[in-house]
Amino acid sequence: MRERVLLLTGFGAFPGVTDNPTAHVAQSLHGLPLAGWRVHGAVLPVAWERARADVARLVAAHAPACIVHLGVATEATAVRIESQGANHLQFRVADVDGAQPQAGEIVPSAPQILTTPVAVADLVAHLQQLGVTVALSENAGRYVCNATYFSSLHAYPDRRVLFVHLPPVSAEWPLARLTDAIARVLEFLGS
C-alpha cells in the first residue's frame, strides 16, 4: 500500500517566543512513516501572507491527504485541539513582517466560521485515554495561527485540515512529551 502524505507544519520564532517548540516537533517527525502516513514536516514563518503562500507551495509539491498545523499558545497548560477557524483579521500584535491587520476577512465573502472535518471530540477522547492532557477549543486565536488555519480550511476542503495548539516547553511539557502527543494525533488521523 502506498503511503499517504501528511503535511505537518510548525511555526518559527516571533516576539515573545524565540524558540518555538512547534518548529522542533514538525522537524523531528519529518520523514517518519507513522500510522500509514509519510510525514512531511515544515516550518512556516509567523507572517500570515507568507505562511499561506508556503502552505500552498507545500500542498502543490507534496499532495498531502491531511494537513496538521501546530502553534504554540503561551498561556496553555494542555494540548488544544482547535475545532474551527474564524474568517477574521484582527492581530493583537504585528507578525514578523510587520503586518498587523485590525479589521477585515481572511478570505473575502467566505463563511465567518469553518470547522474541521476531523472528528475532534473522538480525537480528544482518544488522547485522554492515552493520558495526554488535552482540551477541545473553539477559538484558534486572532493571530497567524487562526489566519493559517482558516486559509487552509477554505483552500483545501477536500483534505482533512486540523490545527493543534501546544503549551510552551516546561517541566510538565518537555519537548519529547509534546512530540509524542502530536505523534498520537497523527496516529489517530491515520486510523
Walkthrough of the structure:
The protein has 191 residues and is α/β, with parallel strands linked by helices. The protein has a single domain, classed as Peptidase C15, pyroglutamyl peptidase I-like (Aminopeptidase). It has five helices and nine strands. The chain has a seven-stranded mixed sheet, with helices on both faces. Helix 1 (21-29) packs across helix 5 and helix 2 runs parallel beside helix 4. It is globular, with a radius of gyration of 15 Å. The mean pLDDT is 95.
Per-chain topology:
Elements (H helix, E strand, L loop, with lengths): L3 E8 L9 H9 L3 E2 L2 E8 L3 H15 L3 E7 L6 E4 L1 E3 L26 E3 L4 H10 L4 E4 L6 H12 L4 E7 L8 H16 L1
Parallel strand pairs: 1-3, 1-4, 4-9, 5-8
Antiparallel strand pairs: 2-3, 5-9, 6-7
Task: State the gist of this model.
The protein has five helices and nine strands, in the order E-H-E-E-H-E-E-E-E-H-E-H-E-H. The chain has 191 residues and is an alpha/beta fold.
Number of domains: 1
Percent of residues in helices comes to 25-40%
**Major beta sheet summary:** 7 strands, mixed
What is the CATH homology-level superfamily?
Peptidase C15, pyroglutamyl peptidase I-like
Number of strands: 9
Distance between the termini: 14 Å
Q: What percentage of the residues does DSSP assign to strands (E)?
A: 15-25%
Number of helices: 5
Which strand order does the major sheet show? 2-3-1-4-9-5-8
Mean of residue pLDDT? Answer: 95
CATH class: Alpha Beta
Rounded to an integer in angstroms, the radius of gyration calculated over CA atoms is 15 Å
Shape: globular
CATH architectural label: 3-Layer(aba) Sandwich
Give the structural class.
alpha/beta
